[in-house]
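Lecture notes, structural biology module. Today: joint structure prediction for complexes of two components.
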Amino acid sequence: MVAMLPEFVNAPINYLLVKVAARCNIDCSYCYWFRDKSVYAKPKLMSPAVRDQLLRRVEEQIVRYSLEEFSLLLHGGEPLLWGIGNVCHLAEDCRSISDRTGCSFAFSLTTNGVLLDDGWLDCFEQNTIHVTLSIDGPAHIHDLHRRTFQGGPTHALVERAIRLLQHRGTHFGVLAVCNPAYHPKEYVEYFAAVGIDEFDVLLPDATFDDSPPSIGKFYCDLFDLWLDGNREKRGLNIRSVENMVAALLGGQSKSEEIGYAPQEICTIMTDGGMEPLDVLRIAGDGSTRTSFNIFENAIEEIKDEPRWKAARDASLNLSDKCKQCRYMQACGGGYLPHRFSEENGHDNPSVYCEDLYGTLSHIQSVLEKQVYVSEPSGKKIAIGEVIESTEQSPLQAQGA
Amino acid sequence: MPPLTLTVLASVLQMHGAGATITSGNKGIEDLLAPIRAQLQEGVESNAPSVKIALNNHTKGFYAKGFYTKGGFFKASYMKSVGATPSVRPALGQSGGETAKPPEGGTHR
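The predicted structure, tokenised, for the full assembly:
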């Protein structure tokens, strides 16, 4: 079976991943960012000159393409190292752009939370900056990998940040990284205990040349927990699980981690360099390096940059194995950085291919029983039964 | 059973006649079915030979590792619905034009 591939509309870029700090204040063992040592050649922090040029390019992009919304994700390293003054200044300048153009801005910032204090919370509130906090569940899992440069734990510091955010009533997102050595129940129960019912558990970053431990059982169990947590009422939101379910139901995954869609992220480095998706740097030193930068190039020109184009093409041109797979569209070959090998570039299935296949199969088997066709008479039939009972399935005829 | 693409679901509903819909007793699944029902309904109303979905959300910037707006995510951040369907205004003096096209994607089969 070879599934028909969808086509995608070419839309102007209205979102940037902005690396305002190239360094971090903690030393996570699994961090993708420092796997590429070339990052140490970048300025530690984005300078005012780069910031101002970035804003000029953003306004130019907005005017040129009549954009109504523009999104900036402030990222690192650790973005709080950039300082409150710089973040507030950036937000103020964006408000001025908004006044001139009518374009509204959405800000988000992803932090390890260690430096978070009331001053930062004021800054986030005053500038409507959405915060995402990285925490790998309970301390005994989190502190395995997320440690200080002196080797100390960081969990207590992040918990302090959670309490600060909750005390101020600030909505925030939570990102954890999967550690398959533990049962996902430990993550779910921990987040419930600290009052977080919406989070994500990301796949650990690894290339096709690595041999990461299997994550299939973890995600099957995580799905079961999600299912159970939503049995009576909508009580548990786990983004990666919901992306897989949505994709299997024929909808869209809302993350580039899973689902068939082009990879079109533009990363702005601290020196103004323009690069493709930051996680692609797990392929090795300099793997995302380009000669494009915001002083020489307009934002939209990144689409002509060979490495950016190669990443976009690779995200859509799946391996032969993926093209034959029944979950091709729901999976999309997995996360592009996880497909890299020295031998084939990104022309591989995900290093987690078997795990993703197993997880999607498990979810599919549940959906077959728990999604119904409801007739006006009130009769409900499990969709799996409906489809299986169709001898000459129109689905087959349509090549579904 | 094949994966439940929109085409599969549309075909199943067609077999069960007008008024048939897809539901689930699980509140999480039911929540995720809501936009899919809307897309299926759109397909029925427009008498489309196949159900199309607006894949354009994926091609836009607000989708990456963790960042979430109405249209999508970026994995590295997790933002709760701050508006953002693909948002391109008609250029001044134009009523439409290429940049003002509503999102259209390929056929999801």
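Point to remember: Chain A has one domain: 15-323.
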